[in-house]
Design a protein that fits this description.
The complex is a heterodimer of chains A (about 110) and B (about 110).
Chain A: E1 4-7, E2 10-14, E3 19-25, E4 31-37, E5 44-49, E6 55-58, E7 61-65, E8 71-76, E9 85-92, E10 100-102, E11 106-111
Parallel strand pairs in A: 2-11
Antiparallel strand pairs in A: 1-3, 3-8, 4-5, 4-9, 6-7, 7-8, 9-10, 9-11
Chain B: E1 4-7, E2 10-13, E3 19-25, E4 31-37, E5 43-50, E6 53-57, E7 64-70, E8 73-78, E9 87-94, E10 103-104, E11 108-112
Parallel strand pairs in B: 2-11
Antiparallel strand pairs in B: 1-3, 3-8, 4-5, 4-9, 5-6, 7-8, 9-10, 9-11
Classes of the chains: A mainly beta (about 110), B mainly beta (about 110).
């Protein structure tokens, strides 16, 4: 079945370092969403990308959707301890079921 | 004002028991979902309802039965609980199906002993 993989599974950084998580789909996606889940919390929507090659920024976070609409990335500049959590991409395949498939997630730990 | 609420937050029970988790959203959304998050943090969709109608039913054992009395509520009943059912169950809603932003509830941590 369709899979959305993320790498790395886990990343430990020092505060102030940059961080990137990559999301790869086995099939072309209609759009991609990113969610953040703090430890002990629930997933919270961050952003949605729709167009091929689209790049969006939210303060220190930069999101990119690949040209082929099969991959995406989230880059955090100068991480802070508040960035700790698991970051999920979620791809929409479209079609009859129009189902959002969540990626495997990347857990980010930030050491002060 | 909690947008998506779930009860209970924690549920500890014995194998073989039957339990229910309730979910309510006050966002006026048409679509609601149940997700299961296992110990490795994988989020898997179980069911999706649009305006009280089942639209997504993943490969879930038929011990799991969702019920949507109205479009603001989606409950999950689980029969004959097994050890492998231990997980965090999240309810979510979206304005309509598919690509709309999903709003998640706080989760219900189910532990089966």
């Amino acid at each position: 079945g369709q899979q959305v993989m993320q790498i790395p599974q886990y990343q430990h950084v020092q505060e102030g370092e940059d961080f990137t998580t990559y999301c790869n789909s086995s099939t072309t996606l209609s759009n991609i969403q990113w969610y953040k889940q703090r430890p002990g919390g629930h997933p919270v929507f961050l952003i949605q990308l729709v167009k091929s090659g689209e790049v969006k920024k939210q303060k220190r976070l930069t999101f990119q959707f690949g040209e082929a609409k099969k991959n995406s990335s989230l880059h955090i500049t100068a991480t802070q301890t508040t960035d700790v959590g698991t970051y999920f991409c979620a791809g929409l395949r479209g079609g009859a079921t129009n189902k959002l498939i969540f990626g495997t997630g990347t857990l980010l730990a930030v050491q002060p | 004002d909690t947008a998506v609420s779930q009860t209970p937050k924690y549920l500890v029970t014995q194998m073989g028991n039957d339990k229910s988790i309730k979910c309510e959203q006050n966002l006026g959304h048409d679509t609601m979902y149940w997700y299961k998050q296992d110990s490795k943090k994988f989020l898997k969709i179980m069911f999706s309802y649009n305006n009280k109608e089942l639209i997504i039913n993943e490969t879930v054992p038929n011990r799991f039965s969702p019920k949507s009395p109205d479009k603001a509520h989606l409950n999950l009943h689980i029969n004959s609980l097994e050890l492998g059912d231990s997980a965090v169950y999240f309810c979510a809603s979206s304005r309509s199906g598919g690509g709309d932003t999903q709003y998640f509830g706080p989760g219900t941590r189910l532990t089966v002993l």
